[in-house]
Design goal:
Length: 614
């Protein structure tokens, strides 16, 4: 890329003819830090009949590192008279025009203004070229140069500032006054303006070059194909947890009851489940021998258990409900009559998660009219649950429970997971035994609720065999029932857990496993997908077989989106005709794009064409 500058006029004031070494252009080229490798040559008038004298001087240099700069310095205006063709071509081909004159040569300025400036104006009407007018020198009739545009003190022999400004307006030029050809006026003042126009010229040429290149590519070349975005993957929505309602409903269904509360006169009050009560309070752990007094460091727990309850194993109690086989319910006598009258509401509060303190207070107030009795019962509940706060301040209870999970059992029931404590059923799987609790299983799984309460062999058996599932998968399944959460170790384990959840019809666990599989597959980079031994087609087959419609649909889209990877795997042939048709229809990239890409590559690498970008 190059920049062409044409400098017109003689800024010398009585200098000899060979004055190029002291002129404005030569001074700038010699002092500017941007200019390097400057060369000059004298070009003569093409008219052989005239006297041979230098019509203009041509300078060649480099600016901005590698941009070629060509300057034609024409001190003689007579070129417009003797060689109009050359002078016109110089102006038309110029990127920047510099007009310079001496402020002390009024006659020459007037001649240029009257005879040659109109010619330049007509020529510039057909192109847009920046023009710089440089008035060089100090006016001789004053000590200091006058910069006032209205000054008329030097109108006689010197070119005034107002005349120079008027000339600049006529040409739409930038007007500069250079009082001396030193570093400041030439390097910083004149050079700064000239270099600004150089940069503007380079930007304009680069823009035009890119436009021509794009236009040439559109008109004569083959455009590269545009790769469309892959189809959006189906969105799987998770199922909301119903852990709270599952355990709360257990209180009303009266299944797997192993605790019955009585009044002191042996009237049955309410039935409950030891596993739920022990999961929220050390008082019940002590009462049902899960913990011994030696294990309890807090004396208030022991005192609360002794003051409120008494376990009686006599057979004189009227029993209306039966627990697990060979294990009759534990009979608990409630010593406090006020507490006993509100026990059903208190158990409702505990089974609901032990955080609805306002509702508990309202329920207790309906049965106890005396406010002091109400506060006494609330205080006993707080002692059972070990909740901090004064007797008359439920706000402390609410703030304390707000900092804890809304449902206590999802963490406290973990304490009883895969432990023999209070276990009333044992699963036999792969030669090992896994203890569990019927109440939790019945509350959380409808299949097990039917199995343990219907006319099935498991309903009257403590040892229950499990087939078709590995021990690790079944333990993960039980862990979800106890804690409402699971974390598979791999995609294959998640698929095994999904199959187990489908077998026992636990839909939320199925959705969790589906989301886990999808998340893990989406996080795999293409290189890992290509090298992994995991069969995504195999996952698709299992998902369809076990009625996981959401996952199977997602996997089909995933295979189609990564068509180039999975189409090279051997198990791709295992897809059914319907599945293959779906994948081919939604494949990415599409067949049309691949054909266009092949044509474009053939065009780029052909001998008749050269890649524009590269």
């Amino acid at each position: 890329m190059s920049i062409h500058i044409v400098a017109l006029g003689n800024e010398g004031d009585g200098f000899p003819e060979d004055n190029r070494q002291s002129g404005l252009i030569w001074t700038y080229l010699g002092r500017s830090a941007l200019v390097s490798e400057t060369e000059s040559s004298l070009l003569l008038n093409s008219d052989a009949s005239s006297i041979a004298y230098p019509v203009f001087t041509e300078y060649q240099a480099c600016v901005f590192g590698n941009v070629r700069l060509v300057v034609h310095d024409c001190p003689v205006w007579g070129i417009f008279d003797s060689d109009w063709y050359t002078s016109r071509n110089l102006i038309v081909g110029a990127d920047i025009i510099v007009i310079k004159y001496s402020v002390n040569d009024k006659s020459s300025f007037q001649e240029v203004k009257d005879s040659y400036i109109p010619v330049i104006k007509r020529t510039l009407n057909h192109c847009s070229v920046p023009v710089i007018i440089s008035a060089v020198g100090i006016r001789q009739n004053e000590e200091l140069p006058c910069t006032c545009p209205l000054c008329t003190s030097d109108r006689g022999n010197c070119v005034t500032s107002s005349e120079g400004i008027q000339l600049a307006k006529e040409l739409g030029a930038t007007y500069l006054e250079l009082h001396s050809l030193n570093d400041f006026y030439v390097g910083k003042y004149f050079g700064g303006v000239l270099e600004y126009f150089m940069i503007q010229t380079l930007n304009q040429k680069s823009s035009e070059k890119m436009k021509k290149r794009k236009k040439s590519s559109k008109c004569h070349g083959v455009r590269p194909p545009q790769l469309e975005q892959p189809e959006k993957m189906p969105v799987l929505k998770g199922e909301a947890s119903h852990y709270n309602s599952d355990l709360h409903n257990l209180l009303f269904c009266c299944q797997c009851v192993d605790v019955v509360f009585y009044t002191e006169d042996l009237k049955e009050v309410v039935e409950a489940h030891k596993i739920v009560l022990c999961s929220v309070s050390s008082v019940f752990m002590l009462l049902f021998n899960v913990k011994s007094p030696a294990d309890i460091q807090d004396s208030t727990v022991i005192r609360t258990a002794q003051d409120l309850f008494a376990v009686n194993s006599e057979t004189t109690f009227p029993v209306t409900s039966q627990g697990p086989p060979c294990n009759p319910p534990v009979r608990v006598i409630v010593k406090d009559s006020l507490f006993c009258s509100c026990l059903s509401d208190i158990l409702h509060f505990i089974y609901s998660g032990a955080f609805q303190w306002e509702e508990l207070e309202e329920d207790v107030k309906k049965k106890l009219k005396d406010p002091s009795d109400v506060l006494g019962v609330i205080e006993k509940v707080k002692c059972i649950l070990k909740t901090p706060g004064k007797m008359n301040c439920l706000k402390n209870c609410r703030s304390y429970q707000a900092k804890r999970p809304l449902w206590l059992y999802n963490t406290s029931l973990r304490f009883f997971f895969n432990t023999p404590m209070l276990a009333d059923v044992i699963f036999k799987i792969q030669g090992s035994t896994v203890p569990a609790h019927r109440a939790v299983l019945v509350a959380r799984c409808k299949v097990m609720a039917a199995m343990f309460n219907g006319n099935y062999l498991e309903a009257n058996s403590v040892l229950v065999p499990v087939y078709g599932i590995s021990k690790e998968t079944f333990l993960s399944f039980l862990e979800y029932l106890y804690t409402d959460s699971c974390c598979p170790a791999s995609i294959l384990q998640a698929m095994s857990l999904l199959i187990c959840a489908e077998m026992y019809q636990v839909s939320r666990l199925q959705h969790i496993c589906e989301l886990y599989i999808i998340t893990q597959l989406q996080s795999m980079p293409s290189r890992e997908l290509a090298s992994t031994s995991l069969s995504v087609v195999g996952l698709l087959k299992k998902a369809k077989f076990h009625n996981s419609d959401c996952l199977s649909t997602w996997l089909l889209h995933f295979i189609a989106t990564n068509y180039l990877i999975f189409s090279q795997k051997p198990d791709f042939q295992d897809l059914s005709a319907e599945e293959r048709s779906f994948v081919e229809m939604h494949r990415w990239p599409s067949n049309i794009y691949l054909k266009q890409l092949a044509e474009y590559r053939k065009y780029v690498h052909s001998r008749k064409c050269r890649c524009i970008v590269m």
